[in-house]
Specification:
single chain; Methyltransferase SirN-like protein; 7-stranded mixed beta sheet; binds S-adenosylmethionine; about 40% helix; Rossmann fold; globular
Length: about 270
């Protein structure tokens, strides 16, 4: 994914962070505002919550805004420069989820969350990253992972169908495979219990509620140009011309017909 990271960096971080805020609002609506899907009693104060691959902490602020009880919020990302200048009571630290976690955090969290970031586990793939995440959780605590189903997407128009196909070829090419559908098994293999999965359909563009029309299109099409650059570097059934024309086709299709993606949320508990 280095190509992807470099291209979003070259564009400056602001557009990517704005896109993530748009996507977060779209997901929040699809989840009925329930960003924490794992069965944690958030009314009991003092929970310790870590979002790994947090970017600028949008998910953490969203979770916090819905709670009446006070909790401790932590965000980590391999790109420390994404963290907001005003940390607003959230503890941020730069860290790659591939590396051993700092000693002080081991076994201390009630919830460890990752969303849309596990492609960053390439080329080794998510299994060792997930195992590594479990070292952070205290007994009874939860790991929650949310990723897009690229390999068996909802029925869509031709451009969105090609987008999903390109994404799954890309994920195979960089070595992470069909991780969204495999996260449940990887949580089990990492030794967690009560592992469950929730699947949520996210409506995009013309299929979304009017107030999410622009946000949902922006959220999904934002990374398409950087993703197509990665797609050209791995074996693909698409020609370069087909890959290059994909972002504009997807945008037009979402504006004119709408589309859907499925997000898979897998969560499991430490014994
Ligand atoms: C698509 S963004 C998702 C951001 C956020 N989780 C959200 O849902 O809004 C992916 C994030 O994963 C981070 N990331 C990629 N590889 C990583 C790694 N090895 N360790 C930690 N974070 C990583 C990127 O820097 C980026 O902020």
């Amino acid at each position: 994914m280095d190509n992807f990271m470099n291209m979003t960096k070259d564009l400056g971080h602001k557009p990517e962070l704005q896109r993530l805020v748009s996507l977060d609002a779209t997901y929040d609506d699809a989840l009925g505002g329930k960003l924490v899907v794992a069965p944690i009693n958030m009314n009991e104060p003092g929970k310790r919550i870590l979002d790994s691959g947090t970017a600028d902490g949008t998910w953490l602020r969203g979770v916090r805004s819905k709670q009446s009880a006070q909790h401790h919020y932590f965000g980590s990302d391999v790109e420390g420069e994404l963290f907001p200048e005003d940390t607003d009571g959230i503890t941020y630290f730069a860290h790659s989820f591939k590396d051993p976690w700092p000693e002080q955090y081991l076994g201390t969290f009630d919830l460890v969350h990752v969303r849309g970031s596990l492609a960053g586990s390439a080329p080794e793939g998510p299994a060792p990253v997930i195992k590594n995440l479990t070292t952070l959780v205290k007994p009874g605590g939860w790991v929650q992972l949310m990723e897009m189903n690229g390999s068996s997407p909802p029925k869509n128009g031709p451009a969105m169908t090609d987008f999903a196909k390109m994404a799954s070829e890309l994920f195979a090419g960089i070595g992470v495979g069909d991780f969204a559908n495999n996260n449940k098994h990887m949580l089990e293999a990492a030794g967690l219990k009560n592992v469950q999965e929730k699947r949520v359909i996210v409506n995009l563009g013309k299929k979304a509620k009017p107030e999410f029309f622009d946000k949902s299109i922006h959220g999904v099409t934002g990374p398409l140009v950087p993703l197509t650059s990665v797609a050209k570097a791995v074996p693909s059934s698409f020609t370069v011309e087909q890959i290059d024309s994909l972002p504009a086709r997807v945008k037009a299709e979402l504006e004119n017909e709408g589309g859907q993606v499925e997000m898979i949320i897998a969560f499991g508990q430490k014994a």
